[in-house]
């Protein structure tokens, strides 16, 4: 009998059948990813289950056991009654303060940085290179170096200790970095569209509102997620520039965990931490898909 020669397609199919399904490097990658997931998931699991336990269950030391019975007393107490210093109104006060800080910060920073980035990227500005160099330097200046001058300036403007003052400080610190992000993104836009708009007697603001802004949806999502998570999770700026009744949620959380009036209630601490972390987590899970799209569309490209 004569052997029938194999075609290239059938030869590839034979090789695919002979190829082992489980390869050593796949096993190593899977084990590494499993360990990385456990590194973050196990502490989160302990925090969640502890927040639903009573103190009698916590004292048993069985941190991985499920609550029996489940109770939300720690959550309600953390929200409305936990003590932050002499103030025993829970983390809801910090939640409201964080909203008052977040809203003006987003408006100020995004409105200024997007217009500046648009002008530097798409218009012929003589001093653009020097301004970009200054922005690049300012974006990486540590906050601790300029902390005292900012305190003096905030005090002179009579906004020190207010939620609006904290918002202004966040805007000042975020403006250089976000301007560079918007500038890099706008540089990737098709130049033919902008050139055609200029030929069609398009002004600076008309091109911005009618062409550039509608094409900036992806990068806006990226900036929103970066700003919301950065401002909401900030501790140092809120602690430095906030007064007793204007401190953000992270500072209130810190005060609750270090304030002791009798026995330490770890369930309340865990519930307070989860309440503080929930808003940025919800934002990220809702807009996470658009965040990836914005990054791949050129958010941080050089």
UniProtKB/TrEMBL annotation:
GO annotations of cellular component type: plasma membrane
Broad class of the protein's primary localization: membrane
GO biological process: transmembrane transport
Domain ABC transmembrane type-1 positions: 95-287
Spans traversing the lipid bilayer: 27-48, 99-123, 130-151, 157-186, 207-232, 281-300
Record's bilayer topology term: Multi-pass membrane protein
Phylogenetic classification of the source organism: Bacteria, Pseudomonadati, Pseudomonadota, Alphaproteobacteria, Hyphomicrobiales
Protein family according to the UniProt entry: Belongs to the binding-protein-dependent transport system permease family.
Entry keyword set: Membrane, Transmembrane, Transmembrane helix, Transport
Any single Pfam family the record assigns to this protein: BPD_transp_1
Protein name: Glucose/mannose transport system permease protein
InterPro entries registered for this protein in UniProt: MetI-like (IPR000515), MetI-like_sf (IPR035906)
PANTHER family: ABC TRANSPORTER PERMEASE PROTEIN, GLUCOSE IMPORT SYSTEM PERMEASE PROTEIN GLCU
Protein localization: Cell membrane
């Amino acid at each position: 009998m004569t052997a029938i020669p194999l075609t290239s397609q059938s030869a590839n199919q034979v090789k695919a059948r002979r190829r082992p399904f489980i390869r050593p490097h796949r096993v190593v990658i899977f084990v590494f990813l499993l360990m990385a997931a456990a590194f973050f998931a196990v502490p989160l699991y302990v925090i969640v289950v502890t927040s639903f336990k009573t103190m009698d269950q916590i004292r048993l030391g069985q941190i991985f056991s499920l609550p029996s019975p489940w109770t939300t007393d720690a959550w309600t107490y953390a929200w409305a009654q936990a003590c932050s210093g002499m103030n025993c109104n829970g983390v809801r006060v910090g939640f409201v303060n964080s909203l008052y800080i977040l809203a003006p910060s987003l408006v100020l920073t995004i409105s200024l940085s997007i217009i500046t980035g648009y002008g530097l990227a798409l218009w012929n500005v003589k001093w653009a290179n020097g301004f970009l160099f200054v922005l690049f330097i300012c974006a990486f200046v540590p906050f601790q170096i300029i902390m005292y001058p900012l305190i003096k300036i905030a005090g002179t403007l009579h906004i020190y200790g207010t939620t609006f003052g904290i918002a202004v400080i966040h805007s000042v610190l975020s403006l250089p970095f976000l301007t560079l992000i918007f500038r890099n993104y706008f540089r990737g836009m098709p130049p033919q569209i902008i050139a055609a708009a200029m030929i069609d007697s398009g002004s600076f603001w008309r091109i911005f509102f009618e062409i550039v802004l509608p094409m900036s949806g992806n990068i806006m999502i990226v900036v929103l997620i970066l700003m919301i998570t950065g401002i909401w999770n900030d501790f140092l700026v809120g602690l430095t520039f906030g007064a007793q009744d204007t401190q953000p949620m992270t500072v209130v959380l810190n005060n609750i965990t270090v304030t002791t009036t009798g026995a330490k209630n770890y369930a309340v601490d865990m519930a307070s931490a989860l309440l503080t972390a929930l808003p940025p987590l919800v934002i990220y899970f809702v807009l996470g898909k658009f965040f990836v799209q914005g990054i791949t569309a050129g958010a941080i490209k050089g």
